[in-house]
Amino acid sequence: MFLIKKCTQCDRKLRFPIDKGKLKVTCVCGQTFIADPDNPELFKGSEIDIKPDRIKEKSFFRMPRVNIRDLFDLKKIIGQLYNTGYRLQNFKILPASEQRKIILHVVCFLLIAVMFIFFMCGSKGKIFTGIE
């Protein structure tokens, strides 16, 4: 079972287990507090999440779920582009797994671009002009 409580400094929601005893909870803004499940003050202004812990299967063949509405959500697309730009700018300080993913994406993009160029050169303009 988990408890969801807002950070007192930045109002970000923090999710932490309450069945593990006393925990030191740290927000990304730097605010820390001790979460003691025996203290009733902890539960004031908080939500209880009884869902099981989110288990992430790490499989190479597992396809991510795609929501059709997300494909046309302009705010989400801009956010992903901003995130990609940030990751490319800070490539040197990223973990090795993230660096490998970026390199793999760049290599795949370049291979597709080269294949497209060879396809267009091999067709001798038949596709665009209709002349054989």
End-to-end separation = 69 Å
SSE order: EEEEEHHHH
Number of DSSP strand runs: 5
Kindly state the mean pLDDT as a whole number? 80
Shape: elongated
Radius of gyration: 24 Å
Q: How much helical structure, as a percent, in the residues?
A: 25-40%
Reported for the largest beta sheet, the result is: 3 strands, antiparallel
Content-based structural category: alpha+beta
Oligomer: single chain
The structural domain count equals 2
Low-confidence sequence ranges = none
Strand content: 15-25%
Strand order of the largest sheet: 2-1-5
Distinct helical segment count: 4
Structural account:
- With 132 residues, the protein is α+β, with helices and mostly antiparallel strands.
- It folds into two domains: 48 residues, no CATH class; 55 residues, no CATH class.
- The protein has four helices and five strands.
- The strands form two sheets. The protein has a three-stranded antiparallel beta sheet with strand order 2-1-5, with no helix packed on it. The protein has a two-stranded antiparallel ribbon with strand order 3-4.
- β3 and β4 form a beta hairpin.
- The mean pLDDT is 80.
Which features would summarize this protein structure in a list?
two-stranded antiparallel sheet, 16% strand, 39% helix, 132 residues, alpha+beta, elongated, three-stranded antiparallel β-sheet, single chain, 2 domains
Offer a quick outline of the entry.
39% of the residues lie in helices and 16% in strands.
Task: Please give the structural blueprint.
Elements (H helix, E strand, L loop, with lengths): L1 E5 L6 E5 L5 E4 L5 E4 L11 E3 L18 H4 L2 H16 L6 H27 L3 H4 L3
Antiparallel strand pairs: 1-2, 1-5, 3-4
